[in-house]
Q: What sequence folds into this?
C-alpha cells in the first residue's frame, strides 16, 4: 500500500525527476550505460531510412538515445531537453558542442536559436521516449502549441489507448496520442508494440507510434 502510494503520487512528479539523483545517485550514469540497448537502434534506423539529420528529444535524461544514434550516424544535429539539471550537466560536460545541445530550459527561443545557428528550418525527428505518460494532456497541448510548427516526424514510445484509461493499478494513464497530435497537423504512419518491458499492468498499452506533420 505504501509503495503504491509513493509510486502513484510521487514518482511521476516534476519534483521527483528534478532531484531523482539525490535518491538514486547513479541513476543518470545508469541511463548512459543503457545507451547500447538494441531497442534504441529504432531511432538511428528510422533516420537512415528517411534520410533525416536533426533530432529534438523531449525528456532526454543523460542522453542515452543521443549516444545510440551517435554510434550509428556520422553527421546529425541534436537538441535535448530534460527537467533534470543534473542529467543535462552530465550530458553537456561529455558531449556538448555546436551540433549537440542539451538544456534543462524548456524555451522555444533556444530551440529556434539552435536551428538558426545550424542553418536548419525544422527538427527532422522528435523523440518522446517514455516521458509523455508523466505529463498531463493539458501540458502536452501547451508543448505542441509552442513547438509543433518546427517539428516534422515524431516517434512516441509510451502508453497508448484509443480510449484514454488508467491501468488497474492506477499508475499509468494511457492517452490517445493519435487524436492529440492530429489537432496539430500530425498523421499516424505506423504503430507497433514497444520493446521496453514495463513491470506494470499497463504493459498491454506500451506502443511505439510514428507520426508525421502534414505540410
A:
Amino acid at each position: 500500500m505504501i509503495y503504491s502510494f509513493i509510486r502513484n503520487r510521487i514518482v511521476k512528479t516534476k519534483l521527483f525527476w528534478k532531484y531523482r539523483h539525490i535518491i538514486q545517485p547513479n541513476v543518470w550514469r545508469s541511463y548512459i550505460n543503457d545507451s547500447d540497448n538494441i531497442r534504441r537502434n529504432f531511432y538511428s534506423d528510422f533516420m537512415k531510412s528517411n534520410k533525416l539529420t536533426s533530432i529534438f528529444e523531449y525528456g532526454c535524461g543523460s542522453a542515452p538515445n543521443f549516444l545510440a544514434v551517435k554510434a550509428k550516424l556520422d553527421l546529425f544535429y541534436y537538441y535535448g531537453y530534460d527537467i533534470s539539471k543534473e542529467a543535462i550537466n552530465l550530458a553537456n560536460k561529455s558531449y556538448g558542442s555546436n551540433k549537440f545541445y542539451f538544456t534543462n530550459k524548456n524555451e522555444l527561443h533556444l530551440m529556434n536559436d539552435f536551428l538558426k545557428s545550424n542553418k536548419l528550418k525544422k527538427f527532422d525527428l522528435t523523440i518522446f521516449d517514455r516521458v509523455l505518460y508523466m505529463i498531463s494532456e493539458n501540458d502536452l497541448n501547451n508543448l505542441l502549441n509552442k513547438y509543433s510548427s518546427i517539428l516534422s516526424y515524431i516517434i512516441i514510445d509510451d502508453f497508448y489507448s484509443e480510449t484514454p484509461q488508467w491501468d488497474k493499478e492506477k499508475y499509468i494513464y494511457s492517452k490517445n496520442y493519435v487524436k492529440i497530435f492530429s489537432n496539430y497537423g500530425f498523421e499516424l504512419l505506423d504503430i507497433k508494440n514497444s520493446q521496453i518491458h514495463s513491470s506494470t499492468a499497463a504493459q498491454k498499452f506500451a506502443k511505439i507510434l510514428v507520426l508525421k506533420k502534414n505540410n
